[in-house]
Structures are given as C-alpha cells and as structure tokens.
Write a structure and sequence with these properties.
Elements lengths: L11 H19 L2 E10 L2 E4 H5 L13 E4 L2 E10 L8 E2 L4 E6 L5 E2 L1 E4 L2 E7 L14 E7 L2 E7 L18 E3 L5 E4 L11 E9 L10 E2 L5 H9 L8 E4 L10 E14 L9 E14 L1
Length: 289
C-alpha cells in the first residue's frame, strides 16, 4: 500500500520523484470501486473433554485421550463493490474474478457467493491451495471486463501469543458475567502494533460452536472502510472483553484473538480507503463458574 507523508516545507527537489505517487493517490481518492478483503487463520485447538463437560480435569495433558480437537482454519473473503457517496454503503459488483496471491507465489481463485462477495476456506487441510504465510505480502485482486483492481497487505503478521490464554491447567477459569482483561505482546522490531480483533464463541460439550456472544470485528463493508480512518482503538496494549460475552455459568467459551495487519488500495483505480486485512489468531479456552 502506498503511503505518502508530506510536510509544508518539502522542496521541489523532493516533489519531482513523488509526482507519480501524488497522481496515483489523487486517482485513488476519486475512484468509485472499493474493496474489502480479509485473510484470517486460526490454529488447531485441543480442548479437554472434561472441561467441556464441566468436570474438574486437573492438569490438562494434550497427549492424553481426554481431548477434543478443533481443526485449524484459513479463510479468505473479498467484497468488491462501488460507492456513490462518502458515507454510503457500497453496492456489490457481481461477475468478477477474485483471486488472492502472495508476492512471488501462485494465485488462488475465490468462489463467487453473490452480491459482490467472493470467498474460499481451508478447514483442517481440506483445501491446501489456501495457506496463510506469515511475512508474506498478499494481493487481493478483482478482475472484471479486462480491468484489474488490486489491494495489498504487506508483511502478514506472525501469531501473537497471549500469555493469559495458556495456563498450566489448559483452560482459564472465569466468573460468568465478569469482564476479562488481557495484555497484548509488545510490538517488536520498530513495527507498528498490529490491529487486534476479539471474538467469543460458546462451545457445547461435544465441541460444537454456537453463535458468537461478542465480537469487535467489523461486519459490513462500510464498517471496514470506517476502520481505515480510525484504527487506533484496535492497537491498545490492553484488551477488555465485556462480561456479557460470558453470560452463563458452567459453560465453555473460545476467545479468538486475531492479530491483523492493515493494508489498502494498490492500483490507482481502487478507492484509497479500501480495507484489506491479513492475520492469524491465538485462542484461549474459558470455563465459567
């Protein structure tokens, strides 16, 4: 994603080589096509069956037989649309060809779902063509009528481990109805802290996932576009999940924390505020009392 920072005192000497970027940025500001894209991965999660059933499992041992495994997942989603106003909900564009491609790698085609949405999912290795690679630069590409629209995320992040999610017992005991606060790892290597998104999902005693009880992840194209303008709240060093995310006692919940890098428009025919995200998750198991 091209970023341009200019001060009032910049000289003509510096403006000359930036002329093409200035022209490109101006074109992106007025472009009427917009893209929202996500590439999100979650690891395999092993959960004590005793914890799910509500018994005292003692010290959790992944090598024992008392384990339910939830497979790793990688999901790619692209929304490709047009916008008619600054704060209008974009309208989806159908009939495009959407692909995801790491720089230097092979493009992976996404399936059209309708209303401008295109997706592909790999659950437990079922679709090896779709793989999340930390450190890769990903391009989200929509092609229609011979024209390519390209968004990009640079340096897809590594998994950010949350210490509180991994007690020796294998799951965290927590009071139902109480908020849960955890600290994020410090940013390293002079890089800006990634965005952090939280989703809480209840689990039944046989490991089936229910509907989320909490999520701060944007869900509509307009919410994703607004995220580009105001991303700061997702970079806080400490995260608090409200108590409403854990409404019932004696239940098991998954807390999924996605560390995500934010990208944007790469081609000059795509709106500058397009939102492209790539990231991978750490997962905690919560047992309420």
């Amino acid at each position: 994603m091209k970023r341009l920072l200019l001060s009032a005192s910049v000289t003509a000497l510096f403006l000359a080589p930036l002329a093409c970027d200035l022209e490109k940025t101006g074109a992106q500001l007025t472009a009427d096509h917009v893209m929202v894209g996500t590439l999100l991965a979650t690891p395999e999660v092993e959960i004590s069956a005793s914890a799910l059933a509500g018994f005292d499992a003692g010290t959790f041992s992944p090598d024992g037989g008392d384990v339910i495994s939830l497979p790793a997942q990688t999901a790619a989603l692209v929304f490709f649309g047009t916008k008619s106003g600054e704060n209008s909900q974009p309208s989806g564009v159908s009939g495009a060809t959407a692909t995801l491609q790491p720089t230097g790698g092979q493009a992976t085609a996404l399936t059209e779902d309708g209303s401008g949405s295109y997706s592909r999912t790999n659950v437990g290795g079922s679709d090896p063509a779709l793989v999340y690679q930390s450190g890769a630069t990903y391009q989200f590409i929509a092609s229609r009528n011979g024209t390519r629209y390209v968004g990009q995320v640079e340096d897809a992040p590594i998994q950010e481990a949350i210490g509180k999610f991994h007690p020796a017992e294998g799951f965290l005991r927590h009071a139902s109805g109480a908020s849960l606060t955890f600290d994020r790892a410090a940013a390293s290597g002079g890089k800006e802290r990634t965005l952090g998104f939280v989703t809480v999902v209840p689990l039944s005693s046989d490991g089936e996932k229910g509907q989320p009880t909490y999520s701060n992840m944007p869900t509509t194209p307009l919410e994703f576009l607004q995220l580009v303008a105001v991303p700061g709240s997702y970079r806080e060093a400490q995260v608090t999940i409200p108590g409403t995310a854990f409404p019932r006692p004696n239940r098991t919940y998954l807390v999924i924390f996605q560390a995500v890098r934010l990208g944007g428009a790469e081609s000059d025919n795509l709106f500058l505020g397009s939102a492209l995200l790539a990231g991978t998750a750490d997962v905690g198991v919560i047992r309420t009392n």
